[in-house]
Amino acid sequence: MTLRLQKGDSDAFLELYNQYHQPLYHYVLRFVKSPAIAEDILQDVFLKIWEIRTRINPDLSFKSYLYRICRNSVFKLLKKIAVDENLRVQVFQQFAQSVADADLKVLWQQYETLLQAAFNRLPPQRQKVFRLCREEGKTYEQVAAELGISRNTVKEHMVLAMKLIREHLDQFGDNPTHFIFLLFLIKEIPATFTSLS
């Protein structure tokens, strides 16, 4: 079928779409927990398959290729979520609605532990800056004045703190859903992570 796809056979494309759409949808949904976002990702994936059809190697597993593209698309979305507050909130809300209260409570505890471990790896001054900015919601200017350092130094501390925390979450979080969840939590520490105070 991939040979037919390579030649631009739209029927072959439709057959592949019908064959893989449902399992891929459930695969992506495990990560993003939002049916609308999962569908958007799949539309992009299948559009990409059609656009690069002539470069698909028929000797390799098409199924593995599809799942790899889906996984890459999910990680691309994660990068977008990291800088898009509205999208992060939307994904979090979908995630929260998709799990039972008891499950969510367990996850909160796991993520608190994980974030606390990352926070503990920061140098003392960076912890202080991070706490003031994220827990107390102070601006860089306010933190700079309180600690007697420049705004640029505060910014540098925050950039390095977020980098270390994200690396820690990448290393110890068990899937991209956790990463999405934690990106939201990092932005919302005042409401959730009282254990950091």
UniProtKB/TrEMBL annotation:
Gene3D superfamilies: 1.10.1740.10, Winged helix-like DNA-binding domain superfamily/Winged helix DNA-binding domain (1.10.10.10)
Leader peptide range in chain numbering: none
PROSITE patterns per record: SIGMA70_ECF (PS01063)
Pfam family, one: Sigma70_r2
Assigned keywords, A-Z: DNA-binding, Sigma factor, Transcription, Transcription regulation
Domain RNA polymerase sigma-70 region: 16-80
Descriptive protein name: RNA polymerase sigma factor
Superkingdom, natural source: Bacteria
Family: Belongs to the sigma-70 factor family. ECF subfamily.
The keyword Mitochondrion is annotated on this UniProt entry: no
InterPro entries named among the record's database cross-references: RNA_pol_sigma-70-like (IPR039425), RNA_pol_sigma-70_dom (IPR014284), RNA_pol_sigma70_bacteroid (IPR014327), RNA_pol_sigma70_ECF_CS (IPR000838), RNA_pol_sigma70_r2 (IPR007627), RNA_pol_sigma70_r4_t2 (IPR013249), RNA_pol_sigma_r2 (IPR013325), RNA_pol_sigma_r3/r4-like (IPR013324)
Domain RNA polymerase sigma factor 70 region 4 type stretches: 114-164
